[in-house]
């Protein structure tokens, strides 16, 4: 996996996503702090500004934007392709939206293309994930 992909994974996983608690009065709690999210994003931003290749693929053929999508799907509310009427009870908090927006926007500002055909998808990320919560970060 390219170093850039590790930084993407860190920036997404250290974003301020919500995890479920066992407390009725506070059923959802942020997983990370703003400081952790900022530090991980800063490392990603530094790599991008230093010329890291956003077109580099990992050993599975995932692009950097594909890596971001795969990781973001782990922290966003779930989507079931076979049951589009189902709604995940996990809320989408504004802090997570802010954190993921800057990750995706930075990748695209450095040349990542959500409309490029991905080898294993048979289409683009934007097309394949258009019905999912992650689509908002691909500007679909």
UniProtKB/TrEMBL annotation:
Record's protein name: Ankyrin repeat domain-containing protein
Domain of life: Bacteria
SUPFAM superfamilies: Ankyrin repeat
Organism: Occultella gossypii
